[in-house]
Specification:
By secondary structure, the protein is an alpha+beta fold. The chain has three domains: 3-120, DnaJ domain (Helix Hairpins, Orthogonal Bundle); 144-212, HSP40/DNAj peptide-binding domain; 218-309, HSP40/DNAj peptide-binding domain (Sandwich). It has helices at residues 3-6, 15-29, 31-34, 38-54, 57-74, 77-81, 86-92, 113-120, 152-157, 233-238, 298-309; strands at 144-150, 159-167, 170-178, 187-190, 206-212, 218-221, 224-232, 240-245, 251-256, 265-268, 284-291. A four-stranded mixed sheet has the order 6-7-11-10. The relative contact order is 0.09.
Amino acid sequence: MDYYTVLGLDKKASPDEIKKAYRKLALKYHPDKTNGDKAAEAKFKEINEAYAVLSDKHKREQYDTYGASGFHQRFSQEDIFRGFDLNSILRQFGFFNNSQFGGSNGFRASSGPQQFNSIFGYASGRGGCQGGCGSSQPLKGEDLTYQLSISFEDVLHGAEKTISLRHNGAPQNVSVKIPKGIESGKRLRLSGKGAPSPSGGPPGDLYLKITVDPHPEFQRDGDDLIVEKKIPFSMACLGTEVEIVTLEGKRFKIKVPPGVQQDARLRVKGHGLPSGPIGERGDLYVKIGVHVPQELSEEQQGIIGKLADAGL
């Protein structure tokens, strides 16, 4: 489901345009307007889900960055509707005001949270109808969380991992695709891979919390990578050339200019990590360290003494 298409908008739509499109469609497909039409109820759910994402700056940025598939790996239905008060929003648009829609076609003032729970199924907590909707839906199973460690190479190329779980005491292998550019702390959702429902409802979801393991050579700074190279003091003064190997194994020779300072960074463009599944790659920075020997030979001490006398 493409949220922009659901609301009849393009990706450049302004917040006001999104709000106007939602108001028009919510008015058309509101349950009190459609007399129990199941197709209209499904459409009403879609437009509210689209508005819950596109009206929220952070969620919209994530949706635009990762696309529908990548977004739903990161956001569950609970995440999408967190902070989204449907009744309050509809009241802002006047949808519960009989004077606006008079006669038999008007919205009924009796509309309320219980009615929306029966439509959305998740509007009042896990399973949707806990403690107030009657027996229209059995409870959803519990969501589970699994810690998954991945490498820098997995972040660079993307990966497919197989994890072993136990359901009702029986082992089960689950395959999951790791998108490029993912960061530590992000969560991937596997729908229906959580705990079974205690009352015959749908199973919960499985959330994979990602940890990116440290790399022996590289440090991560957002989408950029940093590799440290130490050079002798003499080469820092005179300039030199260092060889680096990128994360994917490519070799480069980098010129170090004369007079380079401690912790200076030299950029290799486009050899960092990807910014999301389809984003451009960051840069690789070579961080220069100046090596100071702990012990000197007599000859070296003499040379360093002469340099000191010369003001170096």
